[in-house]
Design a protein that fits this description.
By secondary structure, this protein is an alpha/beta fold. It has eight helices and seven strands; from the N terminus they run E-H-E-H-H-H-E-H-E-H-E-E-H-E-H. It has helices spanning 24-35, 42-51, 55-65, 72-83, 101-111, 126-134, 174-196, 210-220; strands at residues 12-17, 39-41, 91-95, 118-123, 136-138, 145-147, 200-205. The strands form two sheets. Strands 2-3-1-4-7 form a five-stranded parallel beta sheet, with helices on both faces. A hairpin with a 6-residue loop joins strand 5 (136-138) and strand 6. Helix 2 (42-51) crosses helix 3 and helix 4 packs parallel to helix 5. The two termini are 29 Å apart.
Length: 225
């Protein structure tokens, strides 16, 4: 039996699942800010490690460059280190983690029984995902993201936040995007089935205006804007 949603004062644990480009990163950041808890985004942490050429970054770069998923043990270690920090005491919002059953089991070892967690599964048509991802541009300095059609920078090719030249991430090229989506289907579908009976899991139509989606997320965690 799935437990009820967390009560006021309890640590909140929210997981965002969904294919690349589904919009879960934007919504996860917004929800985390509203709840006053950190957003745990493995993609951001990994890209930062690559940009800084840390030992972890050097290990994961070949996987991200070719659009392959990073090995479970590396991601679990990364998240374990992050969750041990003090600001995670009141809870956290996970963006894109876990993506596999081994990662889910690793998260449970760190954070306990998932029955009180809220898991959002974002669903978006594949043609929309391809358009969203191939048009995305990223600032390697401050991590800000833009989209050539939906959210272009004020000055073409330059970050609005810090002025750095924007780049297209290697894993956002169309051929790599197609591979990422296929791998997501193959590796993450069992995880979706796993959480259906172990958490408060809700399917979310991500192909709607952002404010509409956000209101639905707030209602799910019983928080009012």
């Amino acid at each position: 039996m799935v437990a009820a949603s967390p009560r006021v004062g309890e640590a909140v644990r929210v997981i965002f699942l969904g294919p690349p480009g589904a919009g879960k990163g934007t919504q996860a950041a917004r929800l985390a800010a509203h709840l006053g808890v950190p957003k745990i985004g493995t993609g951001e942490m990994l890209r930062t490690a690559i940009a800084r050429k840390t030992p972890l970054g050097q290990k994961v770069h070949p996987f991200m460059e070719t659009g392959n998923l990073v090995p479970d043990e590396l991601l679990v270690a990364l998240v374990r280190e992050r969750l041990s920090e003090r600001d995670c005491g009141r809870g956290f919002v996970c963006d894109g983690f876990p993506r596999t059953l081994p990662q889910a089991l690793g998260l449970e070892e760190m954070s306990g029984d998932p029955r009180a967690w809220v898991v959002f599964d974002f669903e978006v048509p594949r043609p929309v995902l391809m358009l969203r991802l191939s048009g995305r541009r990223w600032c390697p300095s401050c991590q800000a993201t833009f989209h050539l059609l939906n959210d272009p920078p004020t000055k073409p090719g330059l970050c609005d936040v810090c002025g750095t030249a924007l780049v297209q991430r290697e894993d956002d090229h169309e051929s790599v995007v197609a591979k990422r989506l296929q791998e997501y289907d193959e590796r993450t579908f069992p995880l979706i089935e796993y959480y259906r009976t172990r958490a408060r899991m809700l399917a979310v139509d991500g192909d709607r205006p952002m404010d509409v989606v956000f209101r639905e997320l707030l209602e799910a965690v019983e928080v009012r804007a």
